[in-house]
Amino acid sequence: VLAERTFAPWVDMEAALRAAGTPLLSLESKQPLKDFDVVGFSLDYELTYTNVLNILDLGGIPVLAAERDDSHPIVIAGGSCCLNPEPMADFIDLFVIGDGEEALVELLDIFREWKKSKAPRKELLKQAAAVPGVYVPAFYKAEYGPDGMFQSITPTEDGAKPIVQRRIASKLPPPVTHPVVPYIEVVHDRGAVEIQRGCTLGCRFCQAGILYRPLRQRPQAEVIQAVGELIANCGYDEVSLVSLSTSDYPKIEELVASLARQYKNLALSLPSLHIDSFSLKLLESLPARRKTGLTFAPEAGSDRLRRTINKGTTEEKILATAEAAFARGWRSLKLYFMLGLPTETMEDIEEIVQLVAKIRATGKGTKGGLPQVRISLSTFIPKPHTPFQWVAQDSEEQLNAKHEVLKQGLRRKGSRLSWRDPEVSLLEAALSRGDRRLGKVIHDTWKSGSNFDAWDEKFNYQNWLDAFQKSGLEPAFYARRERSLDEALPWAHIDPGVTLEFLKREYQRAFKSEETPDCHYNPCNACGLERLSADCKRKLGD
Fold it and tell me: What's this model's pTM, rounded to 2 decimal places?
């Protein structure tokens, strides 16, 4: 198998390619995209959708799947956005829902045999549709009521599954220890080892916690060996231990201490540290020379709202962890908060200001004086297959009012603040909860010149509004409308492993501010994974 890479060219290079009539090429062998058998995309952020269309067009591949024939590559996509594939259904031949490592090998075997047989393209898609976790949108029809409400999506071809179940790898694939090393400086210029996949914390706004269940952990010896191979093969002096909640990895303190002993000059990056389990022992294990900054995500200002979102931490624990970090010499702390969470009030916003002030006061009493505290604000995006998939997003007026309270309050406290434009968040939510009709919106937006929408300097809100209007749709219909628990959802034919009954139960518990315990340390919550995971089934039986 020949696997190569290509990248979306920046606007100046795109102009040069189009002026010269040169198609987009692969990086390694400089072959046009249209000459490959398969072109794959990872869809992890909705505002990169126009980039997908632009790459296909530059590569000489018809943008619309319906316009491709036997001479064109098969266009596939995976990634977190595929939990609701419908907005991109017009452009992708097949989606891989969930873990792709095993599914891709099976698909490659099918591609090889199909190529030998010289059968029509449709025959390949029919065989691919039988692979667990694969969704072929051309084999399904979406229906809408006279009022414009989505009604159903049903198979139109024999063999197309009514429900497509997320693919779950039974164990983690071998770690990547021979990655391609860039010859220019990149943002995350370090090695990475996935130490575990999945998260059992159950934050109710978090789609990743659904997408990557159940929890699968890499043995400690395998992690240590992988780190050593990365250093030897690539020369990295920093390695990131990657997971959704790194500090919940079993015996993480022992792992960090062991790596520090074996690799004296190695800096360790520990992303996604869960505040409750960020122990003093772990802090002691980190090399003291590389205290560049710590990042925590309280998400909400009040304990009540953190219970609502099932964040599972308290102000007392946040302050204790901050105090321990400052005492160990950290002088920079970054805090992530989310605006517009369900049931949020202005009192919750004021409590963010008060919490930041308390954290700074805690640091003032330690060696080094006042610490630097940076606040990053994101906007709540209701995501498919989460307990908050039915919730309306805040209006722009509501978000601006909350931001103003924070801006004024935090400025007085001497903290730096960054936040997301509500217009961007509106489109994120609309595309996240959209149906197949949004394909025309995406297509028209791209034809209007939009590309690199995820980059602030290239984002053109008006192009999106014009495309929505042209299609007779409104972004607020998808983003800012509360849904009833019995409304038909455009992504209901995708089974993420977690059942609808569990999501409804979590939704109802949220509005009572009731927490659901972490099933890693407590009894099974019967989320639905017990149907698919032997470990979960065994735990439920216990």
Answer: 0.94
